[in-house]
Amino acid sequence: MAFLQGKLPCFCVLILCMAVLVSSHNRYYTSPSVPRLTDAFPRVPISNGFSKAFGGSNIQVINGSMATLALDKSSGSGLASVNKYHYGFFSAAIKLPAGLTSGVVVAFYLSNADVFPHNHDEIDIELLGHDKRNDWVIQTNVYANGSVNTGREEKFYLWFDPTQQQHQYSIIWNNHHIVFLVDNIPVREFQHSGSFFPSKPMSVYATIWDASQWATHGGKYPVNYRYAPFRVSFAEMEMSGCISNPTGTVTSCSKNTPSSLDPIEGPEFVKLSNQQISALGWARSKLMFYSYCKDTSRFKVMPPECK
């Protein structure tokens, strides 16, 4: 928009000040007002709650509360939670790498593939790098019981520049539904309405890695290591839920009369409020550009939750 400098009428300037820019598409949106769920839970020091999963030399923990993860030619890097969880609220404040990031994936997700390699569960927030024409996008996905060939992907544009400062990416997972949130705005709700639902305890992961084969335009644009290292920061980690032994019998840690802030059975977490439903509709109508429920080339018969 440099060509407009000095030529915008005053009322246009006011509009720009009141809106949030979707930078890759020159759209201006005012994001809805929603409850700040991320303010309700304690933050977990990375030095206490996580261990290095891979690429240890590319991980730097700062003051115990923030970690910088890097991807270079030698390796990506990742953190894994010390505990495993059966349901809960999970969140991270993430600042993404700037510049050309084709093929790069930053992920905040839950998985139990280390314990159940043949029938694992997974709940993914994946942030996909971009070529010169597109900014970062967010891909959400759900796997259950090893269904790696039938992922439930949905993709969204962001309504801010995720490389300028940290933004919060969160997951609610309980027996009622899975909710994906960005800056506390729900962008997707996956209801527990059938047999396809993650049901086993999972660890929490924060990673950056090379996904050249598929991440950017189906693998058309691989990682360009001339721009490496690619660095992402994770902070304000929140993990509140049932800490569980994944090889033993899982029992609910919810109370008979849960508080409103219980992410397992609390009334604010078992279903979306009217305000959250409205925000969810805003995100899906304005920002979603792919849903597996509309991909007839992949699914000749749509999964039951799509109906």
From TrEMBL:
One of its GO terms (biological process) is xyloglucan metabolic process. The active site is at E122 (nucleophile), E126 (proton donor). It is found in: Secreted, Cell wall; Secreted, Extracellular space, Apoplast. Residues 27-234 form the GH16 domain. GO terms for cellular component: apoplast; plasma membrane. Residues 1-24 form the signal peptide. It holds the Pfam family Glyco_hydro_16. The keyword Cell wall biogenesis/degradation applies. Its EC number is 2.4.1.207. This is Xyloglucan endotransglucosylase/hydrolase. GO terms for molecular function: hydrolase activity, hydrolyzing O-glycosyl compounds; xyloglucan:xyloglucosyl transferase activity. Contains at least one intrachain disulfide bond essential for its enzymatic activity.
